[in-house]
Amino acid sequence: MAKTIKVGDVSVEAGERRAFELPITDLYTNAQTSMPVEIVNGKKPGPTLFVSAALHGDEINGVEIVRRLLAHGSLKRLRGALIAVPIVNVLGFMNLSRYLPDRRDLNRSFPGSQGGSAASRLAHIFVSEILLQSDCGIDLHTAAVHRSNLPQIRATFDNHEVRRLAAAFGAPVIVNAPNREGSLRAFAADNNIPMLVYEAGEALRFDEISIRSGVRGVLRVMRAMGMLPVRTPPKVVEPVVATDSAWIRAPQSGIVIALPELGRRVRRGDTVATISDPVGANQHAVISPHPGIVIGRTELPLVYEGDALCHIAEFEKPKMAEETVAAFKEHHEA
Predict the structure, then answer these.
(1) Residue 217 in 3-state DSSP?
(2) Cα–Cα distances in angstroms (integers) from residue 297 to residues 114, 163, 173, 189, in the given order
(3) Which residues neighbour 54 within 8 Å (Cβ) at sequence distance 6 or greater?
(4) Which of 17, 244, 248, 281 is deepest in the core (most CB within 10 A)?
(5) Distance between CA atoms of 207 and 95, rounded to whole angstroms?
(6) What is this structure's pTM?
(7) Residue 157 confidence class, pLDDT cut points 50, 70, 90
C-alpha cells in the first residue's frame, strides 16, 4: 500500500485526497493566515512529488497551473502522492508583491529557521512540511515584474535524474543554471531531492501558452516518474539546451523602441532595440554581442542606463533552437 502523507496536523491515507490550510502566521489584526495545500495520495505506492507556485507572490501563472493540474482526470490513476501548494508566499500574494511584508525574498531565505524573520519562518515551514518528505519537486515561476520569460526549465545538470526530468517536461528551452544561495532549488540539491524550476510568462498576468505548457509539462514529468500511466508516447517538442545566457543591458536611459519578441533568433551584430530620448533627437542602437534566442525581455519601454533589456540564450545550433521554439508555440496554440 502507498504510505500515509502527513502535513501539519493533517494525515492523508492511501487512496485519499484532501485540501486543507496549513497555518503559517497571524496578521497584526489577529487574523490567521495559512498556506493552501492539497494532497492526492494514490492507492498504489510510488514517488512523492511536490508542485509549488507563487513562491514570489506576484508570479501567478503557476497558481492557475496547479488549479488545472488538480482538476485533471488522470490523477484518479495516480501512483504515489502529489503535494500541491498553489500559493506558498501567501502574504506577498495578498499584496500583489514579489516579496514578503518585510521586503525579504522568500527564494533567498531557505532553509529558514523556526525563530527567524517572517521569510525565514515561512521557508522553514515549507522545508519541514513539504520538501523533506518529497522525492522530487517542481517549482513554478514567471519573470519578475515588467519582464516576461519564454517557457523554459532551469536546472543543474550535475544530477542525472534532474536532466532526465527536465527533458521530459517538454519546455522548448532548458537552461543549465547554477543554484543560487538561499534558493529552494539549492536546498533541494543539497538534500539530493531532484527539482525543476519552470519559468514562463510575466508577473501578475495569466499567459495561456505558458499555463498550458506548464500543466502538460508537470503531467509529463509525473509519467516519467511512473506516477501516471503512459498509454501512448506523448507528443512533445524535443527541448534544446542553452550553452550560456546573458542579459543585454541599456547603454543609456530613455524610451525603448522595437524589442525582439520572445523566441526570436538574433545574430551577433543585430540591432535588438533602439533607445531614444522623448523628442527623438538622441537615438542609440543596441547591438547584440552574441547570437542566440531571446528567452526573456523587459515589458516596460522606459529604462535607465544599465537596466536589463533582453535575455539571450546561446546554443550550439541556433537555427535548430529557433525551429524548436516555433514548433512549441504552434503545438500549444492549437
Answers:
(1) helix
(2) 38, 26, 15, 28
(3) 60, 62, 63, 86, 87, 88, 89, 90, 92, 93
(4) 248
(5) 21
(6) 0.95
(7) confident
